[in-house]
Amino acid sequence: MVIQCRADERMLHGQVAVTWMNQLTPDSILIANDEVVNNEMSKMALKMVKPENVKMAIRSVDDGAKVLNDPRAAKIKVFVIVRTIQDAVSLVKQTNEVKNIVIGGVRKKEGSHLMGAAVYLNDADIASLKELNFLCSNVVFQMVPADTPKTVEEILKAYESKGKGE
Amino acid sequence: MAHFLLIYKCERGSEMKYQIVLASHGSLAEGMASAVKMISGEHANLHSFGLDTWKTPQAIDEQVEKIIQNHSDERLIILCDIKGGSVHNKLIDRCIKNNAIVISGMNLGLVLDIVLKDDSYICEDSLKNSIEQAAKSISYFDHNSFKKEAEGDDSLW
């Protein structure tokens, strides 16, 4: 079973990743990302930070969904990591195994507003976020387990008021 | 890093708030606090004192005394750079005087792990576990060992 799907620009990175590992204690980590899967150096770096007693698979988003749909995935605790909200949308469209999504860092880009620690959203992200929230009933924003999660509704409301303020 | 921490939920009743002091030679303590801030933001309970600024272990100890006075109902965790160094030798007395916890050989992973702990996760077992994991996080890589590690399995099962 997928215990959590995390969307974070930095994917498996430093202490933030470690705190989630502590919280979730997964058997396996699935990194679902189309760029990393073709980049040997990035793959090496990810494997290096992987905790010793946890398995890891690095796949494209499409192949990641296939892995999650394998009946064997239901028997283990899988921590899924994608890079963007868009990839999370793509993933949940291809598998019913992802029941909850936690969004961490979102990269700064054209027309984006800072919506929380390291969370930059633009109109395209908001559209994807609405789609994701429709496809998956449990989507929140949360950097580390100790933070209070923010709901999609809170973020959407805050984004709207940011738009008006400018 | 390649380490994996277990969460130790401490017994109820040990949910005491705590202050964290980083103390070092040179400016390592302030630098450590700066690195912590970059990764996890401001922590009001984190203090840092290096000998570049404070000149003597005695002066650092006086700052620690002030923190104890201002937070008399809280537990104090002191992290020093090196065991048996002058700062550590001075501050270790705080174990007896104030029931402080004194840890030596601080590194960034360890400090982050401690500052990010919930108050309810601070206890002897959880801190010792953090220390054990921090020690394991010290790693050696060269061309061959890196390739070997990186070519490991790629599978969920």
Approximately what portion of the residues of chain A adopt beta-strand conformation?
15-25%
Low-pLDDT ranges of chain B? 1-6
- Rg of chain A (CA only): 15 Å
Q: Name the beta content range of chain B.
A: 5-15%
Give the strand order of the largest sheet of chain B, numbering strands 1, 2, ... along the chain: 2-1-3-4
Number of helical elements of chain A? 6
Largest interface: pair, residues per side? A-B, 35 and 26 residues
Number of helices of chain B: 8
Helix content of chain A: 40-55%
Based on secondary structure, the structural category of chain B is alpha/beta
Helix content of chain B: 40-55%
Mean pLDDT across the residues of chain A is 92
Give the rounded overall mean pLDDT of chain B.
88
- State the separation between the terminal residues of chain B, measured CA to CA: 22 Å
Give Rg of chain B in angstroms.
17 Å
Outline type of chain A? globular
Describe the structure.
The complex is a heterodimer of chains A (166) and B (157). Chain A is 40% helix and 23% strand. With 166 residues, chain A is of the alpha/beta class. The mean pLDDT of chain A is 92. Chain B has a 4-stranded parallel β-sheet with strand order 2-1-3-4, with helices on both faces. The relative contact order of chain B is 0.19. Chain B is of the alpha/beta class. The longest helix of chain B is centred in the middle third of the chain and has 14 residues, at 57-70. In chain B, 45% of the residues lie in helices and 14% in strands. Residues 1-6 of chain B have low confidence and may be disordered. Chain B has helices at 28-40, 51-54, 57-70, 86-91, 94-98, 108-115, 124-136, 143-150, and strands at 18-24, 46-50, 75-80, 101-104. Chain A binds chain B through residues 14-16, 18-19, 21-23, 25, 27-28, 30, 43-44, 47-58, 67, 70, 72-73, 76, 78, 117, 144, 146, and chain B through 1-7, 39-41, 109, 112-113, 116, 118, 141, 146-147, 149-150, 152-157.
